[in-house]
Amino acid sequence: MYVNYKKQGCLTNKFVECPYYKQAIEEEKKKEEERIIAPDAHEVLEGEKDILEKTVNESVKEALKKYADPKRGIYPDTCYDCLYFSPTTGLCLYMRIKVKDPNNPPCKSKK
């Protein structure tokens, strides 16, 4: 395809009128339509729904047993055992403070 860039406006602020630009946009639209989109995580077969729900609930229950939850009155031995501690930032999300010593939880001393 031969294009006169000056006449078509490909290198100006009227680039939208350029045939190359229009062709690229059309190709991108076709690619988008052809892409296979994976089914949503919520779209499961009816028979699998109960199994999936049971598995998720069991995983949540295991996590709650593994980590302490000060809101329920279960205080951790260390901050690393708490749901509300972020080891990356060193912040206690329960008390909204920076923890100086994660081995000595500040919530335990406030009981």
Automatic annotation (TrEMBL):
It comes from the Archaea. This is Uncharacterized protein. It comes from Ignicoccus pacificus DSM 13166.
